[in-house]
Amino acid sequence: CLFQEMALELKAFAARSEHRTSDSTFLVLMSQGIRAGICGKKYSEEVPDVLKLDDIFQILNTWNCPTLKDKPKVIIIQACRGEKQGMVWVNDSVAASGNCSLVAPEDFEADAIKKAHIEKDFIAFCSSTPDNVSWRHPILGSLFIIKLIKNFQEYAWSCDLEEIFRKVRFSFELPDDKVLKEKRNLFVHSVSKGTINGLLDELLGKRVLNQEEMEKVRDENATAEDKARFLIDIVICKGRQACQICISHICKEDSHLAGILGLTS
What we know:
This protein is of the alpha/beta class. The protein has helices at 3-14, 53-59, 143-155, 161-171, 176-182, 184-190, 193-205, 211-217, 224-238, 240-253, 255-260, and strands spanning 25-30, 33-34, 37-39, 50-52, 73-78, 82-84, 90-91, 114-116, 122-126, 131-132, 135-137, 141-142. The strands form 4 sheets. It has a 4-stranded mixed beta sheet with strand order 1-5-9-8, with no helix packed on it. The chain has a 3-stranded antiparallel beta sheet with strand order 2-3-4. A 3-stranded antiparallel beta sheet has the order 7-11-12.
């Protein structure tokens, strides 16, 4: 839709009577974008069809939306804000909309996610920083939204909103395989026999390891450190999926090791 239509929808949302009895509100905006804001369907270099980010906050501020005064307003924005390529996959930049090539997800920037407090009762979480693109998978969708949903599902019961956002932001700092490479020695010297066996069972069950590889790790003649070293090396060699399974298992089943490896906050 056009940016005027988006603005009208936001104003209609701000005017809803239900806000009087609500205790908070979530607003999710997903579109192509540029640094200035979210693009409407007719955007081009000649046609500035853009809903400015400042306008979004203005529409929902205390003056224009008094029924949400002092109530948390959470704004999730999935739209790139430039053309610099901070990550990989398919980007949501207008400039790249004609190029939908899929690139392997390898190089992540630490500032791929940014949180900004605009007012005391606002919190905005954007999928990219100014001048950077935001990335999506052509089938799975937005990497930012995928990680956001995953962290809500896992931590909504135990963490406040800022902590969940921090976890999402942290998840972009390094790909999982690079995390394990950096923590390899700590893992080798700290992992317990029980965790090794649990990892082997899960990796075998998910067909990441084969029977021969599992038997090598469980070799009775190998020392505990040798088993850990072989396991972590083969997981890293297997790639991102194996590393994700390994990290997820450690975080769920061995909080002590997860803390040592810096996998939890």
